[in-house]
Amino acid sequence: MRCRKCDHKAVINMRQHKLALCKEHFPQWVMEQTERFIRKYRMFERHERLLVAVSGGKDSLSLWDILWRLGYQADGVYIGLGIDGGISYSDTSQRLTEQFAAQRGLQLHVVDIQEEYGSTIPQIANLTYRGQGKPCSVCGLTKRHVMNRVAHQGAYDVLVTGHNLDDEAAMLLGNTLTWNAGYLLRQAPVLPALQGMARKAKPLCRFYEREMAAYALVSGIEYIYDECPHAAGTKSIYYKGLLNQLEEERPGAKLSFYLSFLQAKENGLFNEVFSTGGEADDLTGAGGVAMHPCPTCGQPTTTPAECAFCRMMAKVTR
Predict the structure, then answer these.
(1) Close Cβ partners of 124 (under 8 Å, ≥ 6 residues apart)
(2) Which of 32, 112, 121, 289 is close enough to 285 for a disulfide, judged by CB 3.0 to 4.6 Å?
(3) Structural contact between residues 21 and 29, judged by C-beta atoms closer than 8 angstroms
(4) Domains (range + CATH), the chain
(5) At 8, which helix (H) or strand (E)?
């Protein structure tokens, strides 16, 4: 197959776009599309300071590379989770992230969970779930808390994550199957800032996972190939499998599913349920949900008592 732009050999064929591109024009296309999505969804401006959450995987490192090449002020934050998997999964991902930052002269904040809180993510899961261990929920809660804290303390305008279209479509499918209106309301390419919490943006939300893997490969980005050892059997992977089957039969199905959802929200899908819409101001969250500062950490929470993270860590301390 030949590149649509120069007739050289294509490195990727994107059936959903009816577009094949070579190793020179594909990265250019990715950067152009990223810039377009940033502007379309009003994610951030050139003068704003960005904090990119990086894990050592293809999506987050590719995103940081793209923002760097586009000229944005983007620093990174890596969270050491203390997860093992043969050769330590966390050690490898941290090494690759630090290597990436050093090669480009970028600033990287490193937060080690065990050093900060005295336990690794698997240990916290065992301590707080009575030995049953639910590391994925503990991991997500901890990462969100730490990322928000680093962004707030560093006076960053926007916290940027590398969620791709496959991630977004799988999340959407799971929340639609249970009609979880709260989560559906909060799913968007960009979420406005709250008092004590930076704006959040997902510039890769319209890129397929295979497109980001191709970008990392063509750009020479070394990343950790293995999935987290705790990810096997999770619902998100199951939903991704279902969507992949659909995509095989109907190229572009994932993108259509996600974009149709965003259009439905824009057309007032939740208006009757949440009369104030999806904007947030000060300590009012999406849909007009009242937020309160956690008395322990100060981060916004929907309860007047301690936030979920602080309650969890109190159990660890006990």
Answers:
(1) 113, 117, 138, 142, 312, 313, 316
(2) 289
(3) yes
(4) 31-267 (3.40.50.620)
(5) none
